[in-house]
Structures are given as C-alpha cells and as structure tokens.
Amino acid sequence: MTSQTPSRAQAGMAARARPEIRAMKGYVSARSLVAGGGATVFLDANESPYEPYVGASDLARYPMQQPPELMRVICDWLDLSSRNVTVMRGADEAIDCLMRAFCVPPVDNIIICPPTFAMYRQSAILQGVEVREAPLADRFALDTASVLAQCDDNTKLVFVCSPNNPTANLMDRDAILNLCAELAGRALVVVDETYIEYAGVDSIAAALESHANLVVLRTLSKSHAAAGVRCGVAVARADVSELLSKVLAPYPIPQPVVQAVMAIMAPANQVKLAEKRQDIITRRDEFAAAARDTAPVREVLPTDANYLLMIVDDADALCARAGEAGVILRNQSHQPGLANAVRVSIGTEDEMDMMLAILRGEAVSAPGEERIARHVRRTSETAISVEVNLDRKAPVRISTGVGFYDHMLDQIAKHAGFSLQLECDGDLHIDPHHTIEDCAIALGVAIRSALGDKRGVGRYGFCLPMDESLVTVALDLSGRYYLDFKGEFPADHVGDLPTDMIEHVFRSLAENLQANLHIAVEGENAHHMVEACFKGFARALRQAIRQDGAELPSTKGVL
C-alpha cells in the first residue's frame, strides 16, 4: 500500500491526506444543527434540561465544536480568519489530529529534528507511523539539507519547533520558508510556536498566504499562563483546517475552558499577562547570568523561551540534589547531543533564588519547612489571588486597584516581615468597598492557613507611635475571633482609601485570622492615624507569627 503523490499544481494540501479521511463525512454533532442564533429549545441531544448545581452556567448542554465566542477572541489574538484556525485541547491534540488526518499507518512517515519535543515521536508511535530523524546542526540550527535527504513520497509531516524545546533557540525563518518551498505539494511543514511570545519576533503564520503546506501550532499554555486550561490552536490553510475538523472530537472544548479563555483574553488581562511575560524574561536573563558563575554549570545556552538549557558537570546529581529540596528539573541528557543537559523553567523570584542556592551548594529549606499558603477568593464582585510566605521577606507585590490600600498592605508585609503577593480584580467602577473588604478576608485566610498548627509562634504583641498619632495594638492568635476598634478619623478619605473602611479591614482580618484584636488610635492627622494602625498591626503580627522552637503556646494543647 502506497500513498498517492499529487502534482504540485494541485490546490492546497488536502490531496495528501489519508484517502479515507478525505472521503468521510464529518460527524454531525448536536450543536452543528444550530443555524443562526434563534434556537432556544434543544430536544435533539438527550441532554438534561437542568444545570448540575446552583450557579452553574451552560454545563448541561453540549458546546459547539468550535464555539463562536471562543473563535472570535482566538482569531483576534492571532489576527487570522476563522478559516485558518482550529481550536483544540492544547497543541498536543493538534499534533495528534495532523497525524491522524494525513498519515497512513504503517506506510507514511514524519520527520523530526532532534533534540526536540518528545510528543512528535510519541504521537507517531501511537498512530503506527514511521519516525525519521534529521538532527539539528551546529548550535542547534535547522539542517534543511538533512530534512530533505530524509524525505520520500510517503513523507507527510515535518516538525520544526521554534523556539525549540529543549534547546530554547529560535529557528531561522528563511530556512523554514525554504523548506516549505522545497516540500510544496508534498509534505506539511508544522512549525510549533509554543514559546514564540518570549522570542520577541512575529509568528511565521503570515506566510500562509504564500505557502499552502505551512501549519503553525500555538497555545495559551505558556504565554498566557494557562497550561491547566488546555487550549491550543492549529493555524493552516482552509483545506487543512477542514480535514482537521473531521478527525477532531465532536465536542473538544469544554464550556469551562471557553469561559476561562474569554476571561484570559479580556483586554485588561492581556496587559497584565504581557507585563508578567516581560518579568519572566528579565528574571530569565538575570538567572542565566548568575548560574554561569556557579561551579556545576559549564554552559548556559542562549534562550528565546521561558526556560533555559544548562550543560552541567553531572545532570543526574544536580537533579537529585534539587529533588531533595523539592525542586523538580527536567534532565535532557537522553536527547542526542545533550550530555549532562538540564532544562530549567523560569519560576518566581523565590523559586529562582532557591535554584541558585542549589547550584551554589547552599542550604535550602526542605519542602514543608516554610510556612506558605495560597488562597483564591472569587465572588461576583471580586477575584483575588494571595500568596504568603511567613518565613521570607520577599517578594512583596500588591495590586488591588486602590493605591493607598496597596501602600497599607505593603506596610503589613514589610513590618510583619513576610512575603505577600496579592492581586485583585474588583468592581471599582462601583466603589472600593468590596475590593477592600474581600482582600482583607483573603489575606486573613492565607495567613491563618500558613500558620498551620501554630507550634512555636510568639502568639502575642504591641504598640506604636507615629508623629502626633499613637496606636495601641493587642493581638492574640487564639483561634477565637474578637475585634475591639477605637478611633475616630478627622477625614473621610486618605488618598483613595475611605477611612470608614479601616475598622472593616481589621474586622475582616481578625475574623479570618481567628484572632483577638484590640486597636485604639488617636491623633490629628488621618493619614498618620491610618498608617499607624496598619504598622502597629504589622508589628504585633510580626511578634505573634515569629517561631522559636516547636512548643505550642497554649495550655489547652491546641490553638
């Protein structure tokens, strides 16, 4: 059995697909019968007419294969027509669908360029398709001559990862386009751009107009911090997209994924994600420079991605040492040409500091030794993410949208001596009340969770003057809630923070910390009085959370 080879004059690449896929009709799913937007009663798909729980939305009904609202935001992101876009469950599914649509097992073959992403080979093996190798050239550049030498009439797909995983380098654009031209009408050139946002270059997808055999893979997993969402895209000419829709599952995109992607793609969130990507790039370059000066590292390869590849003296030993500290690395030494190579993803500032300490042979806290907690709070009014580490002083990053409140929460973290990262998206178009209250609730929950069973903590604390103002704060991490707040502020706002919310903040903190909290403040300047309250609380909290030994500070045996 051999694959048919079309002439280059044939339009598009559909003629190179599996004959049975070309001939088959796509599955007619329930939602594919919906024409226009008029249907409201669905009695065709044996669905339940009820949502599974109170508050659920659109979970009882099957989604469309390519939900229109999802397609709209994806096409806006990529600046492409829906004819050229197929949304899938991650780029991994796109690889699998291309394999199923084009490769006749066991006749056809694909070409990969090792060292490269393992899923290309894995998917081919699962489909019974031959894998041929055209190894990367010096400095891991694409070797087009080697690729072409491996091609024959049964070659259907050539995979090029750019930036390449695991070597992190961007492939030469002209070399890829020359490969497309050489293989026109014969094989698809699949360019995996999973990490392209970190490379500072435009996608090669614009070349679709001139190269019918180009396919580009994109994903939200890395650039949009959405690996758990599972949303990827195959970008191709319309004839290839139509084939992919035949082999794609009838309902590949769950409704919660649609809802998550719509939130991720909101313009305001896109701005935040762009800032976070730049933060990762900056930290990547700083880490690479520092890692080069450590004893185990022989070389850090140049990187265009959110990770880097290090050549070390003993990859097995480094991975084992990191694992003992709770840090998981990816040993790439099994890949051709990568002896003693370790791939390191760029994490948070704390995580990269920990990785540097491991490289320097310094002591690192074992997993569970530090008091860390993460808490997410979502309501119809706010969405809040907070992380605390009571045993580290940095980083401190706070963004609530209320400037003076950010300053006060920063005072809590700095004067209490712990790391605090808090981000809130609240209904500030109404007023700051919900944001201020819910951030205090979330922070109280996170600190209480980080304290664990409270063994060794100081439990109590403290008073503090600020200019003409004086605050007295008494705090007991007793496990029982009580607040006594005494203070009258001579102004209704300090900056953009309403002073009538100050007592409310400490009530929410005390209740969710499960603490006894007494605050009495007096003075003449509202700014000084408010800041004294937050600093006094912070200093009391500093004493209360400080650990000294492992004894539980209670005769009851529990707090």
Q: Can you give keywords for this protein?
A:
21 strands; 7-stranded mixed beta sheet; disordered N terminus; 559 residues
What features would you describe in this structure?
The chain is an alpha/beta fold and 559 residues long. 33% of the residues lie in helices and 19% in strands. The chain has 15 helices and 21 strands. It has helices at residues 19-23, 68-78, 90-102, 119-127, 144-150, 173-182, 238-247, 255-264, 267-291, 315-324, 349-359, 403-416, 433-451, 502-513, 526-545; strands at 85-88, 109-112, 130-133, 155-161, 188-192, 214-219, 232-235, 297-300, 307-312, 330-331, 341-345, 372-378, 382-389, 396-399, 419-426, 460-466, 469-476, 482-486, 493-494, 497-498, 516-522. Strand 8 and strand 9 (307-312) form a beta hairpin. Helix 12 (403-416) runs parallel beside helix 15. The longest helix is centred in the middle third of the chain and has 25 residues, at 267-291. It starts with 18 loop residues before the first helix and ends in a 14-residue tail after the last helix. 41% of the residues are buried.
